[in-house]
Amino acid sequence: MRANIILYLEIMSAQPQTRKPVTFRVNPDIKKRLDRLSEQTNRPVSFYINAILEEYFDEYEHAYFIKSEAEEIRAGRAMSYSINSVKTELGITV
């Protein structure tokens, strides 16, 4: 069984920052750990979820971008270049 968590994310906009609710399911063990950490530190669970997302989201986003690009190259829908051809094109002789 999974626990539901409602998360309020900071959304960047021209207006003052607003929070938007996001609901997702999480492993019960993770939920227990979040609850325990929240209780021990007197901070809301959403504080830690936001901190984790801010810390790791860029990495996941980048990894999926790289995976997608690799699939495009393998399928012949995107070009790739060797480091030697790039050096030659740019006139780099190191």
UniProtKB/TrEMBL annotation:
Q: What is this protein called?
A: Ribbon-helix-helix domain-containing protein
Classification via Pfam families? RHH_3 (PF12651)
A Gene Ontology annotation in the biological process aspect, one of them, is: regulation of DNA-templated transcription
* Origin: domain of life: Bacteria
Q: Which residues are listed as membrane-spanning?
A: none
Under InterPro entries, the record lists: Predicted_DNA_bind_prot_RHH, Ribbon_hlx_hlx
> Which residue range or ranges hold the Predicted DNA-binding protein ribbon-helix-helix domain?
19-61
